Amino acid sequence: MLIFGVLRSGLYSLASVGLALSVGVIGIVNFAHGEFLMLGAYMGYWLFASYGVDPLAAIPLGAAGIFLIGSLTYRSAIQRVLRAPELNQMLLTFGISIFLQNLAIILWTGDPRVATVSYKATAVSLGPFTVGLPQLLVFAVAMTLTLSLYAVLGRTRIGKAMRAVAQNRLGASLLGIEVDRVYLLAFGLSTALAGTAGLMITLQLSVSPFIGLLYTLKAFAIIVIAGLGNINGVIYASLVLGLSEAFVEFYVPQGGGWAEGVFFLLILLVLLVRPQGLFK
Amino acid sequence: MKLLRAITVLLALVALVMAAGYQPVLGQAATIKVGVIIPLTGPVGVSGQAMQKGYTLALDEINQNPPLGRKVELVIEDDRGDPPTAAAAFLKLVNRDRIDILVGGLQSATSIAVGAQVLQRPILMAWTGAAFPGFETMLKDADWFFHYHPWQYNNADSTWRFIRSTGAKTATLAVEDGPFGSSAIVESGAFARNHGITITSTETFKTGSPDLTPLLTKAKGANADVFVLVGFDQDVVPVATQARQVGFSPKLILAAPPSWPVGFEKLAAGNNMAGMALWTAENGHPASRTFVRRYRERFNEEPTSYWAPLAYTNLITVADAIRRAGSLDLAALTRAMKATDYEGPIGMRLTFKRSIQGQNQGFTRLIAFQWQNGKQVVVWPQEVAGGRLVYPALYR
């Protein structure tokens, strides 16, 4: 159960780190985050179904495509509500979420679709344990990308600019940082990370216009557990959620039904007991 | 002179009015209007679109020899899977379009919304949708209501009959925790017992869960002959793949989602999984083969959903009843519908009989199929089987 929990936390961290970035840097709660993940999943599916491109190999193209869509969304919609009340921002992203989901239904219908990669059901032995190869690959990709993001934020010029903007927008702009460009980059990157998580879902599951909501909810739970805006705490928070779910599913009778409620319980507990998050 | 001009204009007007009044006699007879309420958009829009194609095929055939010498016209309304929209669609069909007969239907919720309206304005309702027995209760006294799709308890009975036919003694259930799954838990216990199967464990899960490995590991420990999944299309892929990853190989994995994901036939891990359905394109019945061929020719695609032949059957039997009734009078139509005896693309004989509560129930049985090398091979019941069940199946 420990291994199952750890492996699923990889996908959770990749699906959440982008949301943490958009909340932390831009200060916008993006309810359409899961729909960018869904678009990434469709990109993975169509590249596989039409050209036989493995979803792992499709990551650069898929991430770039979703980055472009995210940037366009920022320029055409998000940018206009940055100074508006938070409720307006949330309603806008909620509207974008509904729009993208219905667009996907119109374009590709509501039918789930399967990318039949050859190793979808393959298991590998790790010492005495047997784990699914796709889950292992997804975990490796997710950890690599999440840690790379940490490195970018901590060590590069643009990363430092993002952190500066996150801390004090006005101060950063006085230092000559182009805040709007940083926001654009952060939002594009946030959606690209969600899109990559979607590509990874293509490896394991079927794709449909409705997969986004579940990951949006989990991503919210994770960023609350980590502490709003705390990008570094996302991996730990994902581990907490992944392990809690796996243990509840396995050890609690009828646990599968309860497990999905775990994230609501965790949100509730964290908000009541430690509102700043467990890892801040 | 002025008077003459006025009389001429008046006569011309009278002639125009008379001509308009006699138009039906001079021109073609008025069409028979059949109202159709189906979801063409929304989450189940694909099934509704398949129904529309089934109706189109039936309409082509019917209008080659129109009943009562009047062409049949379909007035199609999209309910979008939304109950208030479905109820409004019915009101529009009866009040504005003045339909003679109502057909269609897919989901239980929209069917209930339409049924509540039809109870107030009775019309012949030849309905394909809804498996929820609450809908049957609602229309239990309606003589003019003809239901084609099996009820939920018919589905459960077929499923456990099929499991018994495999020789299995034990089963473990994995059930999604929504209304679909919770009603299945109640029914499964009773039907499994009736058919001599012991349910060793029941586990619930949230539909769409990406990781079912803990559930499958537990099911592996239960060591039952058959693993029954009561979930939706997005759940069959993780079950097929993750069962192999955790080394779970019961004698049979059986799932009955409303539809299967596009591309599932190419998923190697899905081989030997079994499913329940009203119809599959691999059905060997001659009428089914003809239907598949005509569908392919007309739409340049394969029929993948049973909703297409069900809709076809729906309209063909209604047209046949109109012919036999000789009029559109509700009582005559109802009598003719009750006398329906039709064997079409579904591959099973359709007659209307009393059900537990309803007056006129059509199909009452599902068929079982097994994914074998990318094809849905019908394996039960024997009379429509196109191949043999691989049992025990290997999922390693």
Sequence-ordered SSE layout with sheet pairings:
The complex is a heterodimer of chains A (280) and B (396).
Chain A: H1 2-26, H2 33-51, H3 59-76, H4 86-108, E1 113-114, E2 123-126, E3 129-132, H5 133-155, H6 157-167, H7 169-174, H8 179-204, E4 206-207, H9 212-226, H10 234-251, H11 255-259, H12 262-273
Antiparallel strand pairs in A: 1-4, 2-3
Helix pairs in contact in A: 1-5, 1-8, 1-9, 1-10, 2-3, 2-4, 2-8, 2-9, 3-8, 5-6, 5-8, 6-8, 9-10, 9-12
Chain B: H1 2-21, H2 23-26, E1 32-38, H3 45-62, E2 72-78, H4 83-95, E3 101-104, H5 108-120, E4 124-127, H6 133-138, E5 145-147, H7 152-166, E6 170-176, H8 179-194, E7 198-205, H9 213-222, E8 226-230, H10 233-245, E9 252-255, E10 274-277, H11 286-299, H12 307-325, H13 330-338, E11 342-343, E12 349-350, E13 367-372, E14 375-380
Parallel strand pairs in B: 1-2, 1-3, 3-4, 4-5, 6-7, 6-8, 8-9, 9-10
Antiparallel strand pairs in B: 10-13, 11-12, 13-14
Helix pairs in contact in B: 3-12, 4-5, 7-8, 12-13
Describe the structure.
Chain A is mostly helical. Chain A has a single domain, classed as ABC transporter involved in vitamin B12 uptake, BtuC (Orthogonal Bundle), CATH 1.10.3470. In chain A, 72% of the residues lie in helices and 4% in strands. Chain A is built from twelve helices and four strands, in the order ααααβββααααβαααα. In chain A, strands 1-4 form a two-stranded antiparallel ribbon. A two-stranded antiparallel sheet of chain A has the order 2-3. The longest helix of chain A has 26 residues. The two termini of chain A are 27 Å apart. The mean pLDDT of chain A is 89. Chain B is an alpha/beta fold. Chain B folds into three domains: 29 residues; 185 residues, Response regulator (Rossmann fold), CATH 3.40.50; 143 residues, 3-Layer(aba) Sandwich (Rossmann fold), CATH 3.40.50. Helix content of chain B is 43%, strand content 17%. Chain B has 13 helices and 14 strands. In chain B, the strands form three sheets. In chain B, strands 7-6-8-9-10-13-14 form a seven-stranded mixed β-sheet, with helices on both faces. In chain B, strand 4, helix 6 and strand 5 form a beta-alpha-beta unit. In chain B, helix 3 packs parallel to helix 12, helix 4 runs parallel beside helix 5 and helix 12 crosses helix 13. The radius of gyration of chain B is 25 Å and the shape is globular. About 4% of the residues of chain B have low confidence. At the A-B interface, helix 1, strand 1, strand 3, helix 5 and helix 10 of A face strand 7, helix 9 and helix 10 of B.
